[in-house]
């Protein structure tokens, strides 16, 4: 039994390593530069062995899309405190990740471009984006309900604006991400103060 568990664990580690390598190459070279032999080489296996884990390039790409969108979706969970506090924590965690894991955002940008032409990638990405969007809308609507933001604040439009900003982070100049998030936060907190009179 221990041998079977060990084999399963090794297989999961190898699968994860392949996804990470493909994610890194996607961020670095885009979809057009993503080569299976190079992914295999980075993990230390041969090209044919990779196909035991991912039978096609599309299967690997789907796994990468799921991994990246899951990593970013982890930031969209209520953290306690007021809705503005929850939104602030979310924005700061996203900003921290842009600095700690810039390749995630570069890959996310590539996914967004490819999703326009690839229905499979679009479906996987949209599923996660819907969760993110609903977190933002629900947080904003709860803040409006509690009188922390003005009643005429368009929660859906603000949610889309936040998503658009975060998805384009990788193409901003150095320091641009931090400035953009800080400005967004200042605007949202100004709305809180004005709503509270």
Automatic annotation (TrEMBL):
<feature type="domain" description="HTH tetR-type">
    <location>
        <begin position="12"/>
        <end position="72"/>
    </location>
</feature>
<dbReference type="Pfam" id="PF00440">
    <property type="entry name" value="TetR_N"/>
</dbReference>
<dbReference type="InterPro" id="IPR009057">
    <property type="entry name" value="Homeodomain-like_sf"/>
</dbReference>
<dbReference type="InterPro" id="IPR001647">
    <property type="entry name" value="HTH_TetR"/>
</dbReference>
<dbReference type="Pfam" id="PF13977">
    <property type="entry name" value="TetR_C_6"/>
</dbReference>
<dbReference type="InterPro" id="IPR039538">
    <property type="entry name" value="BetI_C"/>
</dbReference>
<dbReference type="InterPro" id="IPR050109">
    <property type="entry name" value="HTH-type_TetR-like_transc_reg"/>
</dbReference>
<dbReference type="InterPro" id="IPR036271">
    <property type="entry name" value="Tet_transcr_reg_TetR-rel_C_sf"/>
</dbReference>
<keyword id="KW-0238">DNA-binding</keyword>
<keyword id="KW-0805">Transcription regulation</keyword>
<keyword id="KW-0678">Repressor</keyword>
<keyword id="KW-0804">Transcription</keyword>
<protein>
    <recommendedName>
        <fullName>HTH tetR-type domain-containing protein</fullName>
    </recommendedName>
</protein>
<feature type="DNA-binding region" description="H-T-H motif">
    <location>
        <begin position="35"/>
        <end position="54"/>
    </location>
</feature>
<dbReference type="GO" id="GO:0003700">
    <property type="term" value="F:DNA-binding transcription factor activity"/>
</dbReference>
<dbReference type="GO" id="GO:0000976">
    <property type="term" value="F:transcription cis-regulatory region binding"/>
</dbReference>
């Amino acid at each position: 039994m221990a041998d079977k568990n060990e084999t399963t664990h090794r297989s999961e580690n190898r699968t994860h390593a392949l996804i990470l390598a493909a994610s890194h190459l996607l961020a670095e070279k885009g979809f057009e530069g993503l080569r299976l032999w190079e992914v295999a080489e980075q993990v230390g296996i041969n090209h044919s062995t990779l196909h035991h884990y991912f039978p096609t390039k599309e299967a690997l790409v789907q796994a990468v899309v799921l991994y990246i969108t899951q990593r970013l979706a982890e930031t969209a969970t209520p953290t306690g405190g007021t809705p503005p506090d929850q939104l602030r924590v979310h924005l700061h965690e996203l900003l921290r990740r842009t600095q700690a894991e810039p390749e995630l955002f570069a890959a996310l940008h590539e996914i967004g471009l490819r999703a326009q032409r690839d229905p499979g990638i679009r479906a996987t990405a949209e599923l996660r984006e819907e969760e993110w969007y609903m977190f933002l809308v629900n947080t904003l609507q709860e803040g409006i309900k509690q009188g922390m933001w003005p009643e005429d604040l368009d929660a859906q439009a603000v949610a889309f604006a936040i998503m658009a900003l975060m998805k384009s982070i990788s193409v901003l100049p150095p320091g641009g991400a931090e400035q953009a998030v800080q400005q967004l936060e200042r605007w949202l907190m100004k709305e809180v103060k004005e709503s509270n009179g």
